[in-house]
């Protein structure tokens, strides 16, 4: 009777991935009810029949469970992301219209359009996929990324060229071998010359959700296994110091330690829990206190120029003065009287697109965009922290923190509240590799949201052997 009931109930569930979760849930309720009736003196057969009857009609119960355990659409989030992608393309078009060097502006605009479309399609594909399939192989993927970055750190070849401002992976090395003529024909048709370079900082950000899944797999492991986890935490920070600029390495270290601290707070590592909390807190405090010691002369100059731009007008102070002058001369609505030519920013299409927006369209337009980005970031963080699935929570935390911290830094630099630096505003400022990275992380986060009520809590974890 119970078997027939379960078959009829599960036949109403349209999402195949939810059937296992529902089957376990309903079977547990039936077993509990049956045990109670047996304890009250009923026979095994009568107890089973009464427990099944208490569950109600299998068709109606199955339909009700189907409404709960089904993928949740994220139309609002997809629309917000599409709007930001469109704003980024339109801003690059505005730069192209007013850029003194028309060819440079055209390149930025066409590249931004291509990468925005490609990135959004990639985001939608990941959104429809099951994120637990990625998490299942997180250890191998994390190891592969660390091996790739280690090779890049010790070599300077055609596969790992190291031009300014950051080293890259020459994916053309592989693409030219697979699609030599087709790829070049497509690039010529689009009037693009991308050199097919993928910035290595992308791999550090893609490492974050995989690291979250790795943390999840190490739950309840012994002290010996925790040293493996220490390796996966510290090595990427060390490699980032060799391969990226200061903003990326600071972001990476902060996010990794925040994720590790969240796992410790959740009680995932009960062995020496108090000692682990002490170690994590000490490491984070020591890193913050010791970081100024390792600053280069160039970085110290930028900080001094931020604090006193007038005294460093010939060096880093020029950028700070230009940003502040541009914001000061900007109108609430409309084009600034001084225009960009009065306060020339060398990378206004990439690093200072918000400052450019304030000068070209008015402070109100820039403020509206900042508010939109802040609301999206808050929504992403809320989605992560409110996940019932702990694997989804920790993976989503890595994705949302990457978006929020990158956005916050970019906004503060463009408001002259942080020293000038080479940064990326997710989905908006120019950057092909960064656009794809942002879309992948957002796709993973939306996949977590989509399958929150579908996939059960994974059972895999490290063995204490």
Textual characterization of the structure:
This protein is mostly helical. The chain has 21 helices and 2 strands. Strands 1-2 form a two-stranded antiparallel sheet. α8 packs parallel to α12 and α20 packs antiparallel against α21. The protein is elongated. The two termini are 42 Å apart.
Strand element count? 2
- Main pleated sheet: 2 strands, antiparallel
Through-space gap between termini: 42 Å
What is the overall number of helices?
A: 21
Strand order of the main beta sheet, please?
Answer: 1-2
Percent of sequence in beta strands: under 5%
What is the mean predicted local confidence, pLDDT?
A: 79
**Cα shape:** elongated
Pattern of helices and strands = HHHHHHHHEHHEHHHHHHHHHHH
State Rg: 26 Å
Question: What structural class is derived from the secondary structure elements?
Answer: mainly alpha
Please bin the fraction of helical residues: 55-70%
Low-confidence stretches: none
């Amino acid at each position: 009777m119970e078997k027939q009931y379960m078959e009829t109930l599960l036949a109403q569930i349209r999402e195949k991935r939810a059937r296992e979760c529902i089957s376990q849930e309903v079977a547990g309720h039936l077993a509990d009810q049956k045990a109670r009736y047996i304890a009250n003196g009923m026979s095994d057969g009568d107890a089973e029949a009464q427990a099944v009857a208490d569950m109600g009609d299998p068709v109606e119960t199955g339909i009700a469970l189907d409404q709960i355990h089904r993928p949740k659409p994220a139309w609002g989030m997809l629309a917000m992301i599409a709007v930001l992608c469109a704003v980024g393309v339109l801003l690059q078009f505005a730069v192209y219209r007013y850029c003194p060097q028309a060819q440079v502006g055209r390149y930025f605009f066409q590249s931004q359009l291509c990468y925005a479309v490609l990135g959004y399609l990639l985001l939608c594909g990941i959104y429809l996929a099951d994120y637990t399939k990625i998490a299942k192989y997180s250890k191998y993927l994390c190891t592969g990324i660390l091996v790739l970055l280690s090779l890049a750190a010790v070599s300077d070849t055609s596969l790992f060229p190291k031009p300014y401002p950051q080293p890259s992976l020459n994916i053309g090395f592989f693409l030219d071998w697979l699609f030599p003529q087709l790829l070049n024909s497509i690039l010529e048709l689009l009037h693009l010359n991308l050199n097919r370079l993928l910035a290595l900082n992308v791999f550090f950000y893609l490492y974050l959700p995989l690291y979250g899944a790795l943390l999840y797999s190490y739950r309840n492991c012994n002290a010996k296994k925790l040293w493996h986890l220490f390796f996966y935490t510290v090595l990427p920070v060390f490699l980032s110091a060799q391969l990226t600029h200061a903003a990326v390495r600071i972001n990476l270290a902060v996010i990794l330690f925040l994720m590790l601290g969240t796992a410790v707070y959740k009680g995932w590592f009960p062995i020496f829990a108090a000692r682990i909390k002490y170690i994590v807190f000490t490491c984070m405090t020591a890193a913050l206190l010791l970081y100024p010691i390792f600053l280069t002369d160039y970085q110290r100059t930028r900080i001094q120029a931020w604090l006193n731009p007038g005294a460093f007008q010939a060096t880093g102070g020029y950028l700070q003065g230009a940003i502040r002058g541009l914001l000061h001369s900007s109108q609430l609505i409309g084009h600034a009287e001084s225009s960009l030519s009065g306060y020339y920013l060398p990378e206004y299409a990439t690093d200072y697109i918000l400052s450019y927006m304030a000068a070209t369209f008015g402070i109100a337009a820039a403020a509206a965009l900042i508010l939109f980005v802040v609301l999206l970031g808050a929504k992403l963080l809320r989605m992560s922290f409110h996940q019932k699935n702990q694997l989804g929570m920790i993976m989503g935390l890595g994705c949302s923190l990457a978006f929020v911290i990158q956005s916050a830094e970019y906004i503060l630099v463009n408001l002259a509240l942080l020293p000038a630096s080479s940064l990326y505003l997710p989905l908006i400022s120019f950057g092909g590799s960064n656009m794809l990275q942002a879309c992948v992380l957002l796709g993973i986060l939306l996949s977590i949201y989509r399958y929150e009520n579908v996939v059960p809590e994974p059972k895999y974890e490290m063995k204490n052997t």
